[in-house]
Amino acid sequence: MKKVSDTYKKLGIDFSFPIEIKDANGNETYYEYSDGFGWKREYDAKGNETYYETHNGYWHKCEYDSKGNRTYYEDSDGYWHKCEYDSKGNRTYYESSDGEKKGTPRGHACTGKVIKIDGRKYKLMEL
Predict the structure, then answer these.
(1) How many angstroms separate the CA atoms of 30 and 53, rounded?
(2) Distance CA 70, CA 66 (A)
(3) Domain map of the chain by residue range?
(4) What is the pTM of this model?
(5) If pLDDT is split at 50, 70 and 90, which confidence band does 77 have?
């Protein structure tokens, strides 16, 4: 990640630390300390952080559903997790790169199940 202080120096712009930049909604999008460490962030239209990166190369990104629930997370260390939620915002499914799984993913809850109606068996499938 390119440092804003380097750009300021190159352009001959006088500045002091910390360098802090906010977007039109007041969300901090960039911060740099005098020791050279800092970070940048990106947000979606609802103010949810979608991307974060530090000067030393670490990053993570996130995705959200229409209600603001975080549905996906991934970072530069290779870790990820994904979640699903019901209409009330309760987490119904979780899966991570560590192999952890909790709940049943949407669309898979009934697929493959066999039900019996009037003595006849039917296998459910997703359309």
Answers:
(1) 10
(2) 10
(3) 1-55, 58-127
(4) 0.76
(5) very high
> Which amino acid makes up residue 32?
E
Q: What would the pLDDT profile of 95-109 be if each residue is shown by its tens digit?
A: 999 999 999 887 655
pLDDT digits (tens, 9 = 90+) for 40-68: 999 999 999 999 999 999 999 999 999 99
Residue 23 in tokens: 């977007």
DSSP symbols for the chain? ---HHHHHHHHT----SSEEEE-TTS-EEEEE-TTS-EEEEEE-TTS-EEEEEETTS-EEEEEE-TTS-EEEEEETTS-EEEEEE-TTS-EEEEEETTS-EEE--TT-SSTT-EEEETTEEEE----
